[in-house]
Amino acid sequence: GNSVTQMEGPVTLSEEAFLTINCTYTATGYPSLFWYVQYPGEGLQLLLKATKADDKGSNKGFEATYRKETTSFHLEKGSVQVSDSAVYFCALSLDNQGGKLIFGQGTELSVKP
Amino acid sequence: DVKVTQSSRYLVKRTGEKVFLECVQDMDHENMFWYRQDPGLGLRLIYFSYDVKMKEKGDIPEGYSVSREKKERFSLILESASTNQTSMYLCASSLPTGRTYEQYFGPGTRLTVT
Q1: Residues B30-78: pLDDT tens digits?
Q2: Using the beta-carbon criterion (under 8 Å), do A45 and B58 form an inter-chain contact?
Q3: Is B106 in Cβ contact with A46 (below 8 Å)?
Q4: For B17-32, what is each residue's pLDDT tens digit?
């Protein structure tokens, strides 16, 4: 079946540290990949996406590269800020399914000053 | 800006009550979704709808039903609430962007069933 696996949290970092949140997927077909972010008390927002192999999605200093050979879409940021504290969700969608998303379990990030 | 609104941020209901969660989007999106979010499980799809009066089951439809009488409104119904339905409920609508779709989420309704 189709699934997404993320590294477990919570992840606690100091401000300006390097961030990696691992995400791997299993899919029948050729998925599009997404990272969503949920700030405290809010709904999810799209952070970045990639629709084909070797595409790099980027936004707000975050990046993720679609790696078909390793079925991965790891999220990275070179220097995190306190305001990046949130829960991050990796997700995939398949063609012809109207945008249905399959989510990973979420990774909580806490950045300390 | 796309706006997805949900009728309540917090709701407390008793076991056995019928519960309605309302979701409205203002961008004429055809596709709408209901998820529940639980710690350690991420978001799981309950039901989705591709058009007015159309609905399809997601991964965990048991104990829920939905209604879509107008394009902008998608309602989730708990026929007889139970304590294991205590959760955060998120509504979303989606817009095609090239090959894929971008989903827009509401703020969520935190439901407690006592």
Answers
A1: 899 999 999 888 899 999 998 898 999 999 999 999 999 999 999 999 9
A2: no
A3: no
A4: 999 999 999 988 889 9
Q: Comparing C-alpha atoms, which of B65, B63, B43, B78 is closest to residue A92?
A: B43
What is the interface size between A and B, counted as CB pairs within 8 Å?
63
Contacts B7 to A, Cβ<8 Å: none
DSSP character string of B28-96: --SEEEEEEEETTTEEEEEEEESSTT--EE-S--TTEEEEEEETTEEEEEESS--GGG-EEEEEEEEEE
Put simply, whether B42 touches A (Cβ < 8 Å) is: yes
Question: Quick count: other Cβ atoms within 10 Å of Cβ A53?
Answer: 11
CB contact under 8 A, A44 and B90: yes
Tokens representing residue B10 in the block: 């917090």
Nearest-angstrom CA–CA distance, B16 and A82: 43
